[in-house]
Amino acid sequence: MSNNQFVVIGIGQFGEAIARTLSEKGAEVLAIDKSQEKVDYIANDVAYAVALDATDKKALLSQNIQNYDAVVIAIGEDFEELLLTAVNLIELKIKRIIVRAKGKVNRLILEKLGLTEIFSPEYAVGAVVAERLLNPSIVNFLDLPDGYTITEIKAPKSVIGQTLESIQLRESYNINLVTIKNEVEEKDGDEIVKRQHIKGVPHRDTVINENDYIVVFGSTRDIQKFIDINS
Questions:
Q1: Cα angle, residue 211 at apex, residues 207 and 217 outer, rounded to 5°
Q2: Per residue, what are the HEC states of 165-208?
């Protein structure tokens, strides 16, 4: 098989979103769920969709699952089913396994199996919501090791109308600019919707506008300092 061929097991909201996004980006996706109804629902939007029990190793083998680049286990509610599926994939020597975990105990058990790519979307969403409640300027963020983050911030009032050179993000705040996004109103059929667009590669003479969002990299402390000083 060529690259960009993936399996998504578990077509709930999380698994469906992954499968659809992969397909939209040109990947070949095999969607698996034990529910025929869920399989039928997504069948027209992925390369292959099959109803089978992923805890059955022979059923997985029948789909040549070992030939795919990676398998995502997106089973959400039944941890026993998720665990048995993970064990099957390990025994089949799947190249790359990405698995969803709910809570610390589930994550610990999966780590004991030797799995390293473990995601907890509920925790990630919860952290973002909590951060936005505490600091409305922050739109989104990605936690990195050692206290660093990539953070998307609505342009603070005092930097609007200034150039990047005059703001001196690195010199004054020890943070780096990744890019700038601009929010504009566009017509979508009969509705007016707000959409964000990347403004390209920023230069020192780039001006921050009122509807801009800046994406920065730095320590959590330094980014918070920038927000506090300029809001």
A1: 70
A2: HHHCHHHHHCCEEEEEEEEEEEEECCEEEEEEEECCCCCCCCEC
The predicted pLDDT at position 227 comes to 92
Cα–Cα distance measured from residue 191 to residue 67, given in angstroms and rounded to the nearest whole number: 45
Which letter does DSSP use for residue 163 in this model? B
Q: What is the CA radius of gyration of the chain?
A: 22
- pLDDT for the residue 1: 45
How many CB atoms neighbour CB 13 within 10 A? 10
Q: Which residues face 50 on adjacent strands?
A: 32
CA–CA distance, 41 with 37 (Å, rounded to integer): 6
Q: Which residues of the chain have pLDDT under 70?
A: 1-3
- Note the pLDDT of residue 122: 77
Tokens of 132: 């936005």
Quick one: tokens of 48? 């292959």
* pLDDT for position 119: 86
Question: Which domains are seen in the chain, by residue range?
Answer: 5-119 (3.40.50.720), 125-230 (3.30.70.1450)
Can you give the pTM of this predicted structure?
Answer: 0.70
Distance CA 86, CA 113 (A): 8
- 120: phi > 0 → left, psi -120 to 50 → alpha, else beta; which? beta
State both tokens at 221: 């402390």
What residue has token string 């109308």? Answer: 161
